[in-house]
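User: My instructor asked us to take a sequence, write out its structure as tokens, and then describe one feature of it. I'm not sure where to start. Here is the sequence I was given:
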Amino acid sequence: MGAEAVHSANPNVLVILSGLNFDNDLSFLSNKQVNLSFTGKLVFELHWYGFSDGQAWANGNPNQVCGSVKANVMRRAGFLLDQGWPLFLSEFGVDQRGVNVNDNRYLGCMLSVAAELDLDWALWALQGNYYLRQGVLGLDEVYGVLAWDWCKPRNSSFLQRIATLHSPFRGMDIVLYVISHFHHEHYMILFMMQVQVFLMFNLIRYSSIRQLGYVSLRNLCLNHYD
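Assistant: Let's start with the prediction itself. The structure tokens for your sequence are:
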């Protein structure tokens, strides 16, 4: 198994296991857990977007949809918390332009569930655009926290809303801003992460800077694509 291979290569790192259906479903673990040679370092991850539930948010009553979707999230993955396993919301995000009704309604529910469960999380995405993607030069990333030119936030109100998750509700937590597909030699991205993991009484405790997704960007603003 891949988990055993990672553990064998480095017994000091956490092992993160994904689910099925684009990492939306871990329900297959509800009755039978994975059988591994190691303990105390396994983390499960979940992806959750507005489109994970189709157009339910746009077509239904937001309060009713939130209750239904939350129940599904707990059935598909949240039950792991009740079993004592760490659960990492490794991807979530919305169209930062604010024009997607589905995303707009989903976000409030997602934030409330993440706060209630005190989930560690990673946001998709930081980048404002892609140097080249789908054959398009400078393709806009509408889910990006940064604007197309990488010079300013795309949606400052969004940053204020997710700030509610910056402080832990039950303990010390991890925050990541996901960067991907950035290929331009004129710009440097330093993704600095600081995590201390302590093993105490066979339990993992995470001690980290809440703003783990600290990003130092040099020559960030993209003025041209020479």
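For the description part of your assignment, you could build on this observation: Residues 173-218 have pLDDT under 50 and may be disordered. Try explaining in your own words what that tells you about the chain.
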